C-alpha cells in the first residue's frame, strides 16, 4: 500500500475527507518550501469550514476527543504536503513536530494527545514518520481549537 493510500485509509477511518479546500485562517502561507525542507504552519482540527474539536482538554474535551483533534491536525498537514509534492512518497523524513494542546489547569496529558499525531505519521509514512517532538499545554488556541500541530518535512 502506498503512503497516499495509507493517508486515505487513515482519513476514512476517522470519517473525514481532506479532498476539498484546506481553509486557513489568516494572511500567511500554510506551507513554505525552502530547498528540500517544507515548513507546515500550525494546523487546527478544521474540516471544511468547521473546527470539529474545540475547548480545553481535561475540561470540555476528554483525552480521546483531544487525540482525535491531534489526528485531524496532522492529516491536514499531510494533505498540504501531498498537494505540494503530488505524493507523500516524496517525503524523506519528518525531523520535527510541535503539538500545542489547549489545556485545563490540571491537565497534564499533552504527550498522550501528541502520541495520536505521532501515530498517524508512523502509520502513513513508516520510518520516514519518525520525528523529534515537542508537546506543550497552552491557555488558548485560534478558533478555540483544542489542538494545533506544526511540522517540518524533508523531501526529495
TrEMBL record:
Gene3D superfamilies associated with the record: RutC-like
Protein name from the UniProt record: RidA family protein
Lineage: Bacteria, Pseudomonadati, Pseudomonadota, Betaproteobacteria, Rhodocyclales
